[in-house]
Design goal:
Order of helices and strands: HHHHHHHHHHHEEEHEEHHHHEHEEEHH
Number of strands: 9
Distance between the termini: 82 Å
Number of helices: 19
Strand content: 5-15%
Largest sheet: 6 strands, mixed
Amino acid sequence: MTGPRLVTVAREALSLAGPARGRIVGGMVLRAVEGALACGPAILAVAALADLAAASRSTARLAGYAAGCLALIAAQAAVSLAAARLTWTAGYTSGAWLRSTGTHNLVGPWPGQRGLLAGDDAVTVLGSDTRVVENYLGWSLPEITRLAATPVVAFVALLVVEPLVAAAVAVVLAGGVPVYRWAQARYARFATDHRDSRAELDRAVVEHVDGIEVIRAFGLVEQRGNALARAVSAYRDINTRILRRVVPAYSAFTLLIDLLVVAALAGAALAAAAGGAGAGARLAGALVLALRVAQPLGELAGRLDSLPRTAASVARVRRWHDEQTAEQAPDNADADALHFDGAVLAYDDARRAAVDGVTLKCPPGTLTVVVGPSGAGKTSLLHLAARLWRPTRGYVRTPETIALMPQRPSLFSGTVADNIRAGRPGADVALVEAAARAAALHDVVLGMPGGYDAEVGELGNRLSGGERQRLALARALLTDAPLLLLDEPVSALDTGHEQQVIATLARLRDRGTAVVVVTHRLAIAPSADQVVVMADGTITDSGTHTDVLATSATYRALWEAHERAGRWRLLTHD
């Protein structure tokens, strides 16, 4: 990685440091001072050797050199401690700032272009990538500064002490730069394959462990075992290729660094041949300084090896924060209900828009039911309404506060009551129980050990799928938000409880709430103020249940299937 590229990565990383940037820069300065001080004892040793060669064997003078060395070592230790405290705390402060601003933007009024549901991106960027950035800012970047300062100061001192030795060292260094760049270029050819192979291995291991029940039940032990074995073999093979083709290149660079001492000896020999008083002392001093040039360069090369991966993490964090803090569309959260105006939502990897030019109004005190076949864009429409994605084009105007029941509800560690009360923090027990009754959850909760104080577990893993859905529905029903968005709210309910929920939604509508329901179960449709039929991301029909039933063949087919399902009976024979 070239010098300008190193500067670019450092500058980009520092731009992500937030309020800790000044402290990190200050820590880098201290690390540079530490690196310069590391040359002090060697320089004093050279001066002492020169005095000895000049027959100046004053005990006091030699004691002065020794005291100077001790003072420099103490100063180096003090600066090192101060720099470590400053940069480590600043690095972790920058990581905390990145995570807090990243999560704040996620739950802000509008997400970036990637949307809130790009969960893999969020976990990767706010997790592993941010760890890379904070470690780079708090440790690696200051260390690179220190390791670069020491050989620079040592080489300048060498140039003053013995120019011929400095010239010999410079020749070796000039040859080492292209060798190092050649080694990095060889590694770069394998870096992507190595990363992808490692990711594939991780995925295969997770799939194998998570799917162990299915693997055993369906007799897939050999098949899935072979898939895991292939991932293991691929990762082994890529590492073997790196060992064979890349390690020798880096070894060649390391060998050149070791040759600096040989070059110093050659230069010193030339200087000694030229004669002059103190030639032997200058030879010893030049070798000491040459070692101070060589040793940090080896460490520096090791640090620079990880920079391509660091640069990738810095770029991803930078891109994520730029997207999440992008300029918001005007007037997006000032409506009294829900209004789509030519809204388009196109996912990055989709061939067509999930929502394509939708214009729709859901005023206060209305119940809107969105129906259509699977893949019609119903849930994507709801995601736009909930501000989980920003529209690609057009506008979505919503109230500042909304309530949402997603199709796959998220629960938090804590009690049943805690999770319901999330819909209205501070709600009393009576309100919590009323919401649970409206969601057909109350009787279920009473049967749990602890009742409303029962722990739901991590992500609600102590509850069944239906119980999680009812709890999420109770949470949504408890809210006093002017807009209520529900995705398949009755899919886990029987007919009796379904009618109970429908009656509750009607009451919410009557008190002025705009209620929007996405559903495949049409029992709620006749009581809706408007039924919206979607297909291929567009609205094909809308109106009352009666109107749409007369005009939409798609809706008519869905309604007839609903009626046939209502007439199903389980026949038994004696």
